[in-house]
Write a structure and sequence with these properties.
By secondary structure, this protein is of the alpha/beta class. It has a domain at 7-35 and 96-202: Rossmann fold (3-Layer(aba) Sandwich), CATH 3.40.50.300. Helices cover 46% and strands 20% of the residues. A hairpin with a 2-residue loop joins strand 5 (70-76) and strand 6 (79-84). Bound molecules: guanosine-5'-monophosphate. Guanosine-5'-monophosphate binds next to strand 5, strand 6 and helix 4. The site of guanosine-5'-monophosphate (5GP) has 15 residues, from strand 5, strand 6 and helix 4.
């Protein structure tokens, strides 16, 4: 599938800091918008339906799968998450870049649908730091933290399928890296052709 916009996919094991990175990117760059996923997990803390996620029950989620409403979906830590067509197609058709913050399974499904998608994997600098971040977050029980760490071990193996790797040791540095990837992607020949087709046409470049 081809749209006159760029699609960035950021994946990482939980605790790698990808949400903060993506949030900071969005604050700095009005040209890139997030996608709001559907999930079967319950809202946490201050989360609001339609802002962080669309919170739906399993029956509604599965009906959407049946109806072919998702570009991708996956089961992550026991809940289902998916990117609906509605969440991104119109936005990209209108020429706006989109960033998906999803797990690696979803990222690989997106790559099959959108050959031009840019896949970015965020790694923590060490196991100790990953554990410390999960503990500091204070969102999960010790049991859940151990599960997330165990999952991270197999998730790390997926990094080889991604285009770019950001090691999130110092936040500002990692944000700089993310901005650099976004900027470089926008300047690629293929991306310029898709997003600036009118300019190419006006210059009689075919
Ligand atoms: P959380 O429950 O902590 O918000 O998210 C858990 C994991 O699900 C994270 O890795 C997050 O990136 C991933 N996730 C969120 N939305 C989607 C989605 O639409 N599709 C897929 N495949 N993963 C998602």
């Amino acid at each position: 599938m081809d749209y006159p916009a760029n699609l960035f996919v950021v994946a990482a094991p939980s605790g790698s800091g990808k949400s903060s990175l993506v949030k900071a990117l969005m604050e700095l760059d009005a040209g890139v918008a997030p996608s709001i996923s559907h999930t079967t997990r319950a809202p946490r803390g201050q989360e609001m339906d339609g802002r962080e996620y669309f919170f739906v029950d399993r029956t509604a989620f599965d009906a959407m799968i049946e109806a072919g409403d998702f570009f991708e979906w996956a089961e992550v830590h026991g809940n289902r998450y998916g990117t609906s067509r509605q969440a991104i197609a119109a936005r990209m058709q209108a020429g706006h870049d989109v960033v998906l913050e999803i797990d690696w399974q979803g990222a690989l499904q997106i790559r099959r649908l959108f050959a031009n998608a840019v896949l970015i994997f965020v790694l923590p600098p060490s196991w100790d730091e990953l554990r410390a971040r999960l503990q500091r977050r204070g969102e999960d029980s010790a049991e859940v933290i151990e599960l997330r760490l165990a999952n991270a071990r197999s998730e790390f193996g997926q990094v080889r399928n991604f285009d770019y790797v950001i090691i999130n040791e110092i936040f500002e540095r990692a944000l700089f890296d993310l901005k650099a990837i976004v900027h470089a992607q926008r300047l690629k020949y293929g991306a310029q052709r898709r997003t600036r087709a009118a300019t190419f046409k006006a210059l009689d470049i075919d």
